Amino acid sequence: MSAESKKMPKDELEWKKKLTPQQYQVLREKSTEIPFTGKFVHTKDKGMYVCAACGTELFSSDAKFDRGTGWPSFDNPANIQNIELHVDKGFGLTRTEVTCKNCGGHLGHLFDDGPTQTGKRFCINSCSLELKKA
Ligand SMILES: [Zn+2]
């Protein structure tokens, strides 16, 4: 077990203290940030995007692309073991929800219309991510 996972909040009250109000809404309550408002929408810096809640490595900047959707998009996770996919039938739609495997935090959704070879588009909220610059 890593030092970071030992520090993992045990309940929602602890999560509220650890995260910003917006991060709490997205990561814990599965909200979606307003398009084009996130800090990483247009970021081209190189590095590793990690879970804002627990620091797990999620997406490499090499997998990031910008198709004008208003959210950071990736064509592949850095490590498939670090994410979990769930069928989400909210809002009358069937979508695939993407969560952090380590902390269960909501990251965004996965779509099958990616522009690269993988055909995948991981549409992720900026506030669920932190960038560790290379
Ligand atoms: Zn996490």
Q: What are its keywords?
A:
134 residues, alpha+beta, Metal Binding Protein, Guanine Nucleotide Exchange Factor, Chain A, 6-stranded antiparallel β-sheet, 3-stranded antiparallel β-sheet, 9 strands, 14% helix, binds zinc ion
What does this entry show, briefly?
The protein is an alpha+beta fold and 134 residues long.
Looking at the structure, the CATH topology is: Metal Binding Protein, Guanine Nucleotide Exchange Factor, Chain A
Number of domains: 1
Text of the CATH class: Mainly Beta
| Sequence of secondary-structure elements | HHHEEEEEEEEE
Distinct ligands:
zinc ion
- Per DSSP E runs of 2 or more residues, the count of β-strands stands at 9
Biggest sheet statistics:
6 strands, antiparallel
Give the CATH superfamily.
Peptide methionine sulfoxide reductase
Q: What's the helix count?
A: 3
Query: Per DSSP, what share of the residues sits in E-state strands of 2 or more residues?
Result: 25-35%
**CATH architecture annotation name:** Beta Complex
If you compute it from the alpha carbons, what radius of gyration comes out, rounded to the nearest whole angstrom? 14 Å
Q: What is the overall shape?
A: globular
Tell me the distance between the termini.
25 Å
Note poorly predicted spans. Answer: none
The largest beta-sheet arranges its strands as: 3-4-8-7-6-5
Category from helices, strands and their pairing:
alpha+beta
Q: What proportion of the residues is helical, as a percent range? A: 10-25%
